[in-house]
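Protein modeling request. Please complete all fields; requests missing the sequence field cannot be processed.
Requester role: graduate student
Desired output: 3D structure, token encoding
Chains: 1
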Amino acid sequence: MKTMLTLLLGFALISVTPLAAQDLQSQAEKETREMAGRMNLNEGEYLKIKKLNLERLEKIAALAQLREQDNRYLDLRLDQIEEQYAASIFNTLNTKQYSAFVEYRKEQPYTYAGLTMKNNTVAQTKE
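Delivered output (127 residues):
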């Protein structure tokens, strides 16, 4: 009986993982479409930005699993992820597009692990 439950749990975990990856993929697609509209991206730039968005979201999702870790560590690691992302975007876009990216990011709320922060206030996101 224990083996049967273990197998069922294993299959459940395996089937949930692709759904989470699909959610990240669709979220990256949505964000990239918004960015493309604002920054006039060509097809090559669009694909690069989509890849960068997906990588960033995957790293943040992995970091969100470490909630029991020290909050300072999580903040530092999140800052590193965002800095790497911004540097990669900077190296991909031209000056005008990067300026549009900076403006786009200013309008976006800071979101991490279920918390949204805009104007230095934190509130739980509703799902």
